[in-house]
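Title: Comparing notes on inverse folding

I've been comparing how different people in this forum approach sequence design from structure. To keep things fair, I'm posting one structure and asking everyone to reply with a full sequence. Here's the target:
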């Protein structure tokens, strides 16, 4: 990709040298700089979506962790409060509209960003499906890659397009863009049927129910990210884990070269984006078709 000028922000960071990932030496300023580098790629997946946010004011070594969907005291005005149309009198939800909003999240020690699979233009019709492949103990990374390729084949058999990213955690996310048409229930039912069919065809490998997710040797195909109000970590979001890993969009052709789910980090992703020939998710929304 050609280098772009990093976006400017008028949000000022207090204590820019505060350590968010102490072992890696990653400060608040470094997190803001990382997001400036990835912003052109990341924006479509975080802007104008309801967000759930993991805040760690004292960094990842602290026990203070807040998973927040609602406003907090002293919240920067670039983080917008919005009413859920189905809960007009309830607590307001949160969204960002631009890079200032993202820097405001950094200022508030948001170390993970988890959007809904919908934009606030069309709350009731999702524009993506996220399938989270969550390996149990003793599952080889190559088996997670195989599961992602199997999901891709099944999605393509339905006329849909599949994209892949690391979760930055333990597994992979297979993400499908949708032209907003089907409602939440239909989308979740479809995701459920995908997971069930994979586990029915290979019960020795795959599980579609969380109750058994702890069973070692299996990959849990988590379809529950696709219900209304459920979230999945955003493309390019950092994770509050050691190593400062990020959820990294990949080209399917590169998947076999990836060493593991935390291979991509705040430290190495900006350079990769500068040197890769194209954005692997560049045509994500162009590839969207409705779920019939």
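Reply #1:
Here's my take.
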């Amino acid at each position: 990709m050609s280098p772009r000028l990093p976006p400017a922000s008028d949000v000022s960071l207090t204590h820019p040298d505060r350590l968010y990932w102490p072992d890696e030496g990653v400060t608040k300023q470094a997190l803001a700089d990382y997001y400036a580098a990835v912003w052109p790629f990341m924006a479509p997946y975080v802007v104008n979506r309801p967000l759930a946010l993991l805040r760690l004011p004292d960094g990842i070594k602290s026990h203070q962790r807040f998973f927040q969907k609602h406003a907090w005291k002293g919240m920067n005005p670039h983080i917008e409060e919005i009413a859920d149309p189905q809960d007009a009198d309830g607590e307001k939800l949160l969204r960002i509209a631009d890079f200032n909003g993202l820097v405001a999240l950094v200022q508030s020690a948001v170390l993970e960003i988890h959007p809904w699979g919908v934009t606030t233009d069309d709350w009731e019709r999702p524009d993506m499906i996220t399938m989270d492949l969550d390996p149990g103990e003793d599952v080889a990374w190559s088996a997670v890659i195989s599961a992602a390729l199997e999901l891709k084949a099944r999605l393509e058999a339905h006329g849909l397009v599949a994209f892949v990213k690391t979760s930055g955690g333990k597994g992979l996310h297979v993400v499908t863009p949708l032209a907003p048409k089907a409602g939440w229930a239909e989308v979740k039912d479809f995701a459920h049927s995908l997971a069930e069919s994979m586990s029915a065809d290979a019960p020795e490998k795959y599980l579609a129910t969380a109750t058994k997710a702890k069973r070692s040797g299996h990959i849990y195909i988590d379809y529950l990210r696709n219900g209304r109000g459920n979230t999945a970590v955003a493309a390019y979001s950092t994770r509050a884990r050691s190593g400062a890993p990020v959820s990294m969009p990949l080209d399917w052709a590169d998947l076999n070269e990836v060493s593991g789910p935390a291979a991509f980090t705040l430290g190495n992703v900006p350079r990769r984006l500068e040197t890769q020939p194209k954005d692997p998710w560049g045509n994500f929304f162009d590839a969207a078709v409705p779920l019939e």
